[in-house]
């Protein structure tokens, strides 16, 4: 990993700032010991420990392309274009979880039914199928559909759990993504071990993904590639907290015949938010090709460095990100496996791209309105250069993204503003309402194009048992 001069400067600023304020946040070393209690010894039983609940989410988005760019759709056998796209879906999750049976080895199960109702079914509005609205082969919206989003059995010994079936999983490389009406999930086997006080291990082998807006299981493919698929994803790693103020994460993954990917993440906290708190974050990925190299030659080092300052209700964050490689920094489609600071509406992950973001947040709890927050940000990416790319995965065969070899000094900018409110009490407690508006502007061959989007999402949790 080679840090640029700008990244080194940011690290230096972080160190200087850290010494300027009292260390209210504990910097004490955390010794690694056996966990004090066993989760399985406290099992309530299959029935006594059961729960039934879920969420319902109203997801609305309206987009508008500009500078001559258009969405396309088919109508009466003809391709038509339009600058606007609207998606409006109500997604509901009903989740049943049993308790673990008692004894040395506990057994439990989890089943979740996912249901989507499309509230805007206009072919012209939805512009055919996407990861927002499910459509049939003619481009017409599927008005209502359901599936098993989760269906698994779990085995637990002490504080170690093995899960087999359709499940959620979260790591820096393979992570459930939930930014639509319904989330994704994965089919496979995983484990989570928390036998030690400040060190946990996770791993999994997955062969299929249940996409956010599809009824069936799909093979894994990359987010930015030309549609190549893989049959198996293996991942293993750990989370470690060596100090009360420092959390780290290390994971590796083998995506069969695609790539080997390695992730290191760290977050350090210092100070007191009532005076001044400093949060420093580092995320690093190393990606190399493997097997039959379906994605072509890959040799990519990517990192982001963020520095956040918080004073009472106010926070200000600076983030620098760099892609060192002649291809995209890529990750698995239908996952959130990109823990980079500048992954926004655009991922700012073009070949050899550098980007910088400034973000401001306001927490109105400090002014007597708990649950109400505002944020605004601006991000700029530059130096996108794919002229040295020699593969085919991100070339002419890829209709979804621009040909990398045409990217020569491309730039783009993104601006966003958002507000959210979480109800603090009453029968709808924990209901969240979030509105965001984003504008993205790009040079001619940058892949994300010129688009504005307004999104309004309301999520209501509920409990039955």
From TrEMBL:
It comes from the Bacteria. It holds the Pfam family OprD. Residues 1-22 form the signal peptide. One of its GO terms (molecular function) is porin activity. GO terms for cellular component: membrane. The keyword DNA-binding does not apply. Keywords: Signal, Transport. Belongs to the outer membrane porin (Opr) (TC 1.B.25) family. PANTHER family: CHITOPORIN. This is Outer membrane porin, OprD family.
